[in-house]
Amino acid sequence: MEKICPRCGISSKTAPFAGNFCENCYPLSVRIPMAVNVLQCKKCRHIKYAGWSAPTPENLTHIILKQSKGKVASARFDKKNSLLAVEMDSAHGTFIKSFPVEIIYSPSLCDTCSKSAGSYSEAIIQLRGNKEKIEKYIDKLQSRIRRKTFISRTVSLSEGIDFYVGDKIEALRALQNFDLEYLRTEKLVGQRKDGRRIYRSTFRVRF
Ligand SMILES: [Zn+2]
Ligand SMILES: [Zn+2]
C-alpha cells in the first residue's frame, strides 16, 4: 500500500519509509550539533582528542557524538562531505540518516610540538613606552589571543614586553579589537617545502 509522508509529502513508491514517515522525516530522538569546535596543532595537524591525536574520521566521530544527545547504534563522519552518517534503531527497524556537521578548527600547538618548537610563532607583539599602559593592555591582549590560538613565549625587557603569538591573523585581530596603533614589519624566517616563503610579522605598539 502506498504511503504519503505527512511532513514532506513524498510517496513510499519513491523513498524508503519508516512507519508512517519517510526516513528523512522520521521523528528522531537524537540531536547532533550543527558545528563542533576542535583545537588543531598548526605544526603536526593533530587535534585535541584523547590527548592529541590524528584527525581521523573515527576521532572526529567521537568528538561529535560527545556533544550529541540521544542514542545511536553507530556513526561515521565523512570528512570530505562533512556529513555524519548515523545508524539508528527505531520501532520500525534500523536506518541511516546523515547530518551535516561543520568542524571548526582553532589553531593551537600540541604538547609535543610546543616542546620542540620552543618559540614557534607567526607574530611577535612588542609593547613599548608607558609602563602603566603596557600593564593595562598585556592581560587584555593575551587573554583574547589565548581564546583563539597560543602564546609560546612572553619576554620582559627593559624597554617593554615581547610576546610570541601562534597565529598572525589573531595577533592582528586582537590589536584591532583594542584600537591599538602599531608599526608592522615582516621578517623572512624560512621556507616551506613547496617553496613558499614564511614570514614572521612584528607588531610594535608604542604607548
Ligand atoms: Zn518526509
Ligand atoms: Zn603538533
Short description:
The protein contains 4 helices and 14 strands.
Can you give the mean pLDDT? 89
Number of strands: 14
How many domains, as an integer?
2
- Gap between N and C termini, in Å? 79 Å
Q: Using the CA coordinates, give the radius of gyration.
A: 25 Å
Structural class: alpha+beta
Strand order of the largest sheet: 11-12-10-14-13
Tell me the helix content: 10-25%
Percentage of residues in DSSP E strands: 35-45%
Compile the SSE list and pairings.
Blueprint: E1 17-18, E2 21-22, E3 35-41, E4 47-48, E5 52-53, H1 57-66, E6 74-78, E7 83-90, E8 93-100, E9 102-108, H2 111-117, E10 123-128, H3 131-146, E11 151-157, E12 160-165, H4 168-177, E13 183-191, E14 197-206
Parallel strand pairs: 3-9, 10-14
Antiparallel strand pairs: 1-2, 4-5, 6-7, 7-8, 10-12, 11-12, 13-14
Helix pairs in contact: 3-4
Describe this structure in words.
By secondary structure, the chain is an alpha+beta fold. The chain has two domains: 31-107, no CATH class; 118-206, no CATH class. The protein is built from four helices and 14 strands. It has helices at 57-66, 111-117, 131-146, 168-177, and strands at residues 17-18, 21-22, 35-41, 47-48, 52-53, 74-78, 83-90, 93-100, 102-108, 123-128, 151-157, 160-165, 183-191, 197-206. Strands 11-12-10-14-13 form a five-stranded mixed sheet, with helices on one face. Strands 6-7-8 form a three-stranded antiparallel sheet. Strands 1-2 form a two-stranded antiparallel sheet. The radius of gyration is 25 Å and the shape is elongated. The model has no long low-confidence stretch (mean pLDDT 89). The structure holds zinc ion (ZN) (2 copies).
